[in-house]
Write a structure and sequence with these properties.
Strand order of the largest sheet: 2-1-7-6-4-5
Number of domains: 3
CATH architecture of the largest domain: 3-Layer(aba) Sandwich
Number of strands: 15
Order of helices and strands: EEHHEEHEEHEHHEHHHHEHHEEHEEEHE
Helix content: 55-70%
Structural class: alpha/beta
CATH class of the largest domain: Alpha Beta
Strand content: 5-15%
Distance between the termini: 85 Å
CATH topology of the largest domain: Rossmann fold
Radius of gyration: 59 Å
Largest sheet: 6 strands, mixed
């Protein structure tokens, strides 16, 4: 019998003494197949497979019609090898052998196919019949207690990854096999010693690396201390910025007080104009009276001229009358001068009144703009946006028409202020405001309702149209770039929209639903449009 790849025996293998002792104990005849089965299992106990960790139980295959050996192995399946169970199958040809097997027993008729069998089962221990042809000779040897010689092909076994135990070498090996085993173990031990030396060198290098790492750690700790100092300086700068913000708020309050004072000044100017109008009315009344006096004086002058022509004989009386008329003429000239002066005053007052009215209209326009628009984006402020949207919603409610409101918020806007400053943030807000007003209809309403939050009221629009507008706005913002001091800033917006419900006429309810839709868009990853 021959163990190809792993084990070769020149005559065949069976522990005769063990077999005879088994025969004596059980008082039964030990056949040649029992001996082969016993020897196969003994060899399996003393050989370790290269992939034994993966093996859960040992499968044995018999190629050829060797029913006696199949029965002999079946009788020994109650045994376990290293706590692993056994199974045996018989196949008449190699093509029928399906599956993985740890041991393949090849009959003499299948010996020409050993190369194919070896390729078909690369990890199996292949057992074949040896040089003895007649089994009866083997039985006779066993019956006469002849010793059977066994030799192990140790090099072939090691070449294919099998591990041979010392017990197997004692049982079937030679002194050369034992010497080779000891030499290999010495070589392996020297390799292990070299590996230990290498590991020690590696350990020394690791210790040196650890020392260097500790030095680097101390440097990093020093850098960390410096960074902590820089952090304290940054905190001081933040506090100064907060103080600057408080100063700006104080300036804003002062400007609001100045606006109130301007309103009071306008009211005072209006009162002055009213007083001037009253004075003008009084001057006009006096002018009328003066005109009446001039008319009366002219009538008297005519009477005096008539009397002068009639009383030409009395020169002194005429001279007296002429003197009186001269005095009256002086008075008339003075009256005409006063009349011209009054006209001049009226014209001057009219010009002053017109100038005051123009200034008042300009101030009213400024006040209206300050009261209704956002100073930075020129959009409607929150209060005026709500007033216009509520007014439009009331009209839509009466006509029972559709309307949609959009709430728009800039994503991660705080990072822009923190990284680039508030001036860059103002530039980004202005840029987005320009995008919002780019495609508006004449009756759409847009306003800035918060720091980085905008609102759009779309009358006579349904949800589909509003969603298209919202997506267009979102894409334009995402594709646009804000340039500030040679720095490009990319921003995105999240948009929440909601439609007017039936019989709804409260803009506050629509804004609350749009805010919920906006939170939904924020929670879904930002840079998106959500509907509530």
């Amino acid at each position: 019998m021959t163990f190809l790849k792993h084990l070769t025996y020149t005559s065949t293998i069976i522990l005769l003494a063990l077999s005879l002792s088994l025969a004596a104990k059980t008082e039964q005849v030990i056949t040649f197949d029992d001996g082969k089965a016993h020897y196969i299992l003994e060899v399996m106990k003393h050989i370790t497979w290269p992939n034994e960790i993966e093996i859960t139980h040992f499968n044995i295959a018999i190629l050829g019609n060797d029913n006696n050996l199949f029965n002999a192995l079946n009788n020994k399946l109650t045994q376990k090898i290293r706590n692993k169970s056994l199974s045996v199958k018989q196949f008449s040809s190699l093509n029928q052998a399906k599956g993985n097997f740890e041991v393949v027993v090849v009959s003499k008729k299948k010996l020409p196919f050993l190369n194919n069998i070896s390729k078909r089962f690369p990890r199996a221990l292949i057992v074949s019949n040896g040089t003895i042809d007649r089994e009866s000779i083997m039985v006779a040897l066993m019956a006469h207690r002849k010793t059977i010689k066994l030799s192990v092909n140790r090099e072939n076994l090691i070449k294919h990854g099998f591990i041979i135990s010392n017990n197997l070498l004692d049982f079937a090996g030679t002194k050369a096999d034992l010497k080779g085993q000891l030499d290999e173990r010495e070589i392996r031990l020297s390799q292990v010693l070299k590996e230990v030396g290498t590991q020690e060198e590696h350990l020394k290098k690791l210790n040196q690396s650890l020392t260097s790492s500790q030095h680097e750690l101390s440097q990093i700790q020093s850098k960390l201390a410096l960074q902590n100092k820089q952090l304290e300086i940054t905190q001081v700068q933040v506090s100064s910025l907060q103080n600057s913000e408080k100063a700006i708020q104080t300036k804003l309050m002062i400007q609001q007080e100045n606006l109130i004072n301007q309103k009071k000044l306008i009211a005072a100017k209006q009162e002055d104009i009213r007083m001037q109008e009253l004075a003008l009315q009084q001057l006009q009344t006096k002018l009328i009276k003066l005109n009446e006096n001039i008319g009366q004086a002219e009538n008297k002058l005519k009477q005096q001229v008539t009397q002068l022509s009639q009383q030409s004989s009395i020169i002194e009386l005429k001279e007296e009358k002429i003197n009186d008329q001269r005095q009256l003429l002086i008075i008339t000239i003075a009256g005409v001068f006063i009349l011209l002066l009054i006209k001049f005053m009226v014209i001057r007052i009219s010009n002053v009144r017109k100038q005051a009215n123009d200034e008042l209209a300009h101030l009213n326009e400024q006040l209206y703009e300050l009261a209704t628009t956002d100073d930075m984006t020129k959009l409607f402020n929150r209060r005026h946006f709500l007033e216009l949207a509520q007014r439009e919603l009331n009209q839509l409610h009466r006509a029972n028409n559709m309307a949609v409101i959009l709430m728009i918020d800039i994503d991660h806007f705080k990072n822009v202020n923190d990284n680039h400053g508030h001036a860059a943030g103002d530039e980004a807000i202005t840029n987005i405001a320009n995008i919002l007003t780019g495609d508006l209809r004449d009756y759409d309403i847009v306003g800035r309702v918060g720091g980085e939050e905008f609102a759009m009221f779309l009358p006579n629009s349904n949800v589909e149209i509003a969603h298209q507008i919202a997506e267009r706005v979102r894409l334009k913002v995402a594709e646009s770039t804000t340039l500030y001091q040679q720095t490009s800033i990319k921003l995105t917006v999240s948009i929440g929209l909601t439609a007017r419900l039936e019989d709804e006429n409260d803009i506050g309810n629509m804004i609350n639903r749009a805010d919920k839709a906006l939170y939904k868009a924020k929670n879904s990853g930002r840079n998106s449009v959500a509907f509530f």
